[in-house]
Amino acid sequence: MSLRLTDFYPVWFIDLAAAVTLAIIAAGVAYRVRELRRIGVFTLLAEAARRLGPTALASTILSELFSRVVMSRDVITDSKWRWSAHYSQFAGFILCAIATTLVYIYYPTAEPRQFTDIPKIIGNIGGILLVVGGLYFLLRLSKWSRRPVDTVFTALLFTVAVTGFGTQISRVSGDPSVTFWIYTAHLVSVAALLASAPFTRFFHVVQTPLMRLSERLYVLASVKSGAVTVLKQYPGGTRSFKEEMMVENLLEKYRGYS
Predict the structure, then answer these.
(1) How many domains does the chain have?
(2) Span 89-118, pLDDT tens digits
(3) Domain ranges, residue 196
(4) Which residues neighbour 138 within 8 Å (Cβ) at sequence distance 6 or greater?
(5) At what angle do helices 239-255 and 41-52 cross, to 10 degrees?
(6) Distance CA 102, CA 108 (A)
(7) Which residue, 46, 39, 29, is CA-closest to 195?
(8) Smallest Cα–Cα separation from 229: which of 238, 244, 218, 214?
């Protein structure tokens, strides 16, 4: 018989932990937004939006969100395997987030459910994608130059998926001791992953599309105003290097914006 997870940690405790984690995330995002504002990203966006008008602005934003975020086009161009693993993790995280949201809304007491339950199907598909993508990056990390905090992020994302499956299997087995420790590890890894998100590569989910949107809007606004624009081309490759160059290019163009 499946165990009730609320027998280990009550709903109010999970909600409290979620609130604390959310507060940490909000503080981290505020810090990162302040940095983006400092380098002029939002000023450039506002100026480009003013020159383009609401219709062109809305269509460009929707186009960029679909192309760069939903489809991840031109995000990684140096390796199809790396792109596939990256997209696997992106899609897996989104599916797991959707499953968690559905469970929170429709099953607040965390009652045991069948494996054919819709949230379980969505979450399990997402978990498989996270594990597959995570394995690729964990095996490749030793060959890439990465900050320790980004390595921890990759490991946490993988751990969240593995402990999620572990919790699901152990609660069906009916062993309360094993389930308690695996479930605890899952909760801790989820909290650590989300709380550290603004300070790791997790944040490039926000920063990269924003930087590319800034560049796209700048180009359109420049063309509309008749300005001559010279664009630099950057090869696909290391994400951090590419983002740094995009920031540098943004500043250079903003100084000459007229």
Answers:
(1) 1
(2) 888 989 999 998 998 888 877 777 788 889
(3) 5-255
(4) 154, 155, 158
(5) 60
(6) 9
(7) 29
(8) 218
Query: Per residue in 117-144, pLDDT tens?
Result: 898 999 999 999 999 998 888 887 766 6
How far is it, in rounded angstroms, from Cα 243 to Cα 57?
23
Residue among 52, 22, 1 at smallest CA distance from 198 = 22
Q: How far apart are CA 160 and CA 232, in angstroms?
A: 39
Measured CA to CA, the distance from residue 132 to residue 62 in angstroms comes to 29
